[in-house]
Specification:
This protein is mainly α. It has one domain. The chain is built from 6 helices and no strands. The termini are far apart.
């Protein structure tokens, strides 16, 4: 493979990684509207990056064996998880207590990271059929989504201080809208 082809593949994968990472950015922006410490933001971004590495890897491995229909199912599961997170944030914004069904800690972080990385599984299925370079794909997807998650979370944290008590409802609305978008593509 010559240099031009390698650069072309790198640019193509970067664009794909950026597009997939924008999901993590958008959801991170919404999740950043709840009060998070910098340590939590770091671990959320790192976890999302790891999920964006192993989900496409899993998709690439399975890609040659399964049909594209499985990728559609993964998108619906991700949309459902985002709906759950968004509704939970909106409901908890109207309560005085800080009790949440799902928080970006422990199992909630797993759910959060899974919901934003399921689309990378679908892309991994396609890339597995295409025969893309596995190491370059998983590194690119992981690093880009991690950085975009951090940017979204930090920006959400900044906006949260401006919006005060309305920020969590806004964040939940963003997650809810993104879940609806995944479930009902236009």
């Amino acid at each position: 493979m010559d240099i031009a082809a390698m650069v072309g593949e790198f640019v193509t994968l970067f664009i794909m990684a950026f597009a997939l990472g924008m999901d993590a950015f958008s959801v991170g922006l919404g999740m950043g509207l709840i009060k998070l410490r910098l340590k939590q933001i770091f671990s959320i971004g790192l976890t999302i990056g790891i999920f964006h590495m192993w989900m496409p890897l899993l998709g690439m491995v399975i890609g040659g064996l399964l049909s594209e229909q499985f990728g559609v199912i993964a998108t619906y599961v991700g949309g459902g998880l985002l709906l759950l997170l968004g509704l939970q944030m909106i409901i908890s914004s109207f309560k005085d207590s800080d009790d949440r069904i799902v928080t970006p800690i422990g199992f909630g972080l797993f759910i959060f990271a899974l919901s934003v990385s399921l689309d990378s599984f679908s892309v991994g299925l396609s890339l597995g059929i295409y025969g893309a370079k596995t190491i370059m794909v998983i590194l690119m997807f992981g690093v880009v989504s991690m950085i975009l998650s951090w940017v979204g979370l930090l920006l959400g944290r900044k906006v949260q201080t401006w919006l005060g008590s309305y920020s969590e409802a806004l964040g939940g609305s963003i997650l809810l809208a993104f879940g609806v978008k995944l479930l009902f593509p236009i």
